[in-house]
Amino acid sequence: MLQKHWLHYQRKINMRLLNLTKTAWKAILLNKVRTLLTMLGIIIGVASVIAMLAIGEGSKESIRTQISSMGSNMINIRPGADMRGGVRLDPSEMQSLKLADFTALKEQADLLTDVSPQVSGSGQAINGANNWPTSIYGVAPNFIDIKKFTIEEGSMFTEAEVNSFSKVAVIGQTIVENLFPNGEDPIGKMIRFGTTPFKVIGVLSEKGENTFGQDQDDVILSPYTTVQKRILAIDYLQTIVASAVSEELAQNAVSQVSDILREQHHISDNEEDDFNVFSMDELISTFSSTSEMLTVLLVAIASISLLIGGIGIMNIMYVSVKERTREIGLRMAVGGKGSDILWQFLIEAILISITGGLIGVSLGMLATVFIENMLSWPTSVTSYSIIISFAVCAVTGIFFGWYPARKAAALDPINALRYE
C-alpha cells in the first residue's frame, strides 16, 4: 500500500515537472531572438573553454609523443657546475666526466640497456663546391638505439672502428640534401668536416624536428674517439647518454647512475655532485606542467564569457518576470502554488543555459577542427571537457536563475493582477 502511494506521488511529481518544462519551453520560443542573444555569452564561453582545453591537451600529447620519439627511457648525464676560487663555473666548462665513468656505467649499471659517450663540435661540412654549417657528434655505435635513429642506407660504424680512431661518418638527411644536392649516392664518398676528411658509410632515416624545433636530420655521427682526438683535442666527455631498461624504471636507473658516479668521483655524503643526471620523464613532466598552467590561464580567461552569460540570463529572467507579472498573478489566483512559479522560471533559466551549452560544445568542436587543420596546432577534445562544460551550464542556470525565479514566486497575487 505504501509503495503504491509512493509510485502515485512520484508519477504526479514527474507529470508536474513535465508540464512546467513544456510551459518554460513555450515561453522561450515566444522570444526566440531575445533568448538567442541571452545565450550568446554561454555559447561563446563554452566554445572557448572546449577549444582551449583541446589545445592544452593536444599540446601535452604532442610534447609527450615528440619527446618519446627521442627516446622516452633515455637518460642524460652531464657535468655539473662547480665552485673554483669562489666563482661558480658553468657546467659546459667542467671536465668531470671521463671515459672511466662510461666504462663503469657500462659494466655496473644493470638498469641500463645501452650507454654511449657523446662529444660534439660545430663547423663546416664540405663536399666539393657544396658546404653546410652543422655539428658532428662523437658517439658509440649503440647511440642510434638510444636516440631511436634508424639506418636507411649503408651501416653504422663498429666498435673496431671506434678503437682504431677511424675517420668514418654516418650522416642525416639534411646533410645529404645540402652536400649531395644532385641526388648522387653519398655512401663511400669523402666529405670534410673543417679540415678533417671522413668517409660516409651510412645515411640515417629522416626524423624531422624535435620538441625544441631542432632539426634531428642535421647531424654527422662519428666514433667518439675520432672526434675527441682529431676534431676537439680533448680527453674528457661532454655528455653520456643511456637508455633505461624501461620507462617505468627510468627513475630507479637515474638513482643507480648517480650512486655509481658518486663512487667513481669519490664524492662523500656531505658533498654536492659534480654531475647532473636526468631522465626524459622529468623533461616530459616539466613541459606538461608548463602546458597545464597555460591551459588553466586560457580557460580562466574563456570562463569570463560564461560569467557574462550567466549575468545575461539573470537579467533576461528579471525582464521576463516583469513582463509576465499579470500572468503570474492569474495563475496564483486560480490555485497555482509559489513553488510551481519558482520551478517554471528556474527550469526556463536552466533550459536557456543548457541549450546555449549544446550550441557552444558544437561550435567548440568545430573550432578545434579549424585550429588543427588550418593552423596546424595539435588539439585533443576530451570527454571530461564536455562534461565539465555541461555541468557549468547547469550550475550557471540554477545560480543565476534562482533569484529571479524566487522573486516571481514571492509576488502577491492581488498586486500581480493589478500590475500594468
Radius of gyration: 34 Å
* Overall mean pLDDT: 81
Count of the domains: 2
Q: Total number of β-strand segments? A: 12
Return the string of H and E elements.
HHEEEHEEHEHEHEEEHEHEHHHHH
Name the strands of the widest sheet in spatial order.
Answer: 4-5-10-7-9-8
**Number of helix segments?**
13
Compute the separation of the termini in Å.
Answer: 50 Å
Unreliable stretches (pLDDT < 50, length at least 5) are 83-88
What is the chains' assembly state?
A: single chain
> In percent, how much strand structure appears in the residues?
15-25%
Query: How is the main sheet built?
Result: 6 strands, mixed, barrel
The general outline is: elongated
Question: Pairing-aware structural class of the strands and helices?
Answer: alpha+beta
Helix content: 55-70%
List the helices and strands and how they pair.
Elements: H1 2-30, H2 32-69, E1 74-79, E2 82-84, E3 87-89, H3 99-108, E4 112-127, E5 130-139, H4 143-146, E6 151-154, H5 159-163, E7 168-171, H6 173-179, E8 190-193, E9 196-204, E10 220-223, H7 224-232, E11 239-244, H8 250-264, E12 275-279, H9 280-323, H10 325-333, H11 338-374, H12 383-409, H13 413-418
Helix pairs in contact: 1-11, 2-9, 2-11, 2-12, 3-8, 9-11, 9-12, 11-12
